[in-house]
Amino acid sequence: MIWNKDIECMEREQMRELQSAHLRNLVERVYNNVAFYRRRMDEMGVKPEDIKTIDDIVKLPFTYKNDLRDHYPFGLFAVPMSDIVRVHASSGTTGKATTVGYTKNDIENWREVLARCLTMAGISHNDIMQVSYGYGLFTGGLGVHYGAETVGCTVIPVSGGNTRRQLQLMSDYGSTVLACTPSYALHLADALTENGYSLKDLKLKAGVFGAEPWTENMRLELERKWGINAFDIYGLSEIMGPGVANDCIHHTGLHIHEDHFFPEIVDPETKLPLADGQEGELVFTTLTKEGIPLLRYNTRDLSTLNREKCECGRTTVRMKKITGRSDDMLIIRGVNLFPSQIEHVLLEMGETSAHYMLYVDKANNLDTLELQVELDEAKMVDTIRELQMLSRKIEHALNSAIGLSVKVTLVEPKTIARSEGKAVRVIDKRKNKQ
Ligand code: DLL
What we know:
The protein is of the alpha/beta class and 434 residues long.
């Protein structure tokens, strides 16, 4: 099933025309209504009339998270507050939150793109969806909620947390779809048996997981643990929230709703545009957004683009599953490392659980890296010798995969902190020593 065939299967040339028309309108709006963009465009000597087709997008200024912070809370809004019907905010670990606002039309468009995502994952009015993303200022809960209602699902707005209750509701109400972060889905799966449930008590068939990076191996692990089809939903508050892109049943990249969110890939250093297939930072322009439209917002998420038609029949551009952000990259003794590389190796080996934490520190001016990983309850090792052998084996596998020596410490099951939302996987103690 395809929710909006006219758009999702549109000929590429026609899509470009639609995008060009949206871009011309967008540039007019931001130039006339947002002082920040008018100033930036004036500085660059670009006028709205210089923007004729979507290819002219490269003439426009970039936007960064700091620009939103500098104009906190509402300084980049392009409409009067009387037209804003909702605000959301992303907490961020440092500094001020970034706040975004939606008009009625924005909320309608959000429902539309979410409905496309969910339909892509085979979800329909016959489903009962347990929305375990946080409700509130975070966009996850309410965003997915509205989309699920739009396709006619029965929505259980349980929000995050309270693992016991999550499992009880899942069993009592017969939830067929679980929507939460992949790390919370893993935690819930591990908690099933200890709470007295088994897969045969459940009707779950699909997962809509996102809001944090997760590897393809983690996707397969969650499919195996739950006996479901696991889908990847991507998005960010600045652009809309969840629903910017989602993968279809072929799991060959995430279809971007490019009539609303125009993607580019740029080189992380030079910020120059890169060709399809080349990896770089993902940049989005919100073609139709009214509340807080953004030009070329640099997400810092790393991906590639693919404009080939998908087996599912959709022609929309696909982004590769995100494995990290350019600002999440650790530099350990000069070697670049993404936490997802560790996750990939651990799950590939399959000898431990997938719960891990990385500790980065400095000793004698040298970076050190320790990986704590939980043993798998089903595969407990009995002797110290076996434990040592297993740690050595993981150290060896990591060393050959990432070229770094990592100290591996195996810890008891359930000793690493669980998160109900986005997982924290790195503790970088070097930051306090600078
Ligand atoms: O996390 C929106 C969302 C909610 C997406 C629920 C999917 C599901 P923010 O809190 O603004 O918004 O965080 C956005 O999270 O730039 C990525 O770094 C990361 N992210 C989101 N989805 C994915 C995903 C929501 N599917 C930031 N894969 C983004 C990898 C993701 N990273």
